[in-house]
Amino acid sequence: MHENDLIAGLLKGNEKSFEQLVGQYQEMIGSVCMGFVQNQTEAEELTQDVFVEVFQSIQKFKGNSKLSTWLYRIAVNKSINLVNHKKRKRQINKVSIFFGFREEKEKDFKDHGYRSAEQNMENEEVKKALEQALAKLPENQRTAFVLRKYEELSYTEMSEIMEVSVSAIESLIHRASKNMKKHLKYFYSNYYLT
Question: Is 176 in contact with 142 (CB distance < 8 Å)?
Answer without folding.
Answer: yes
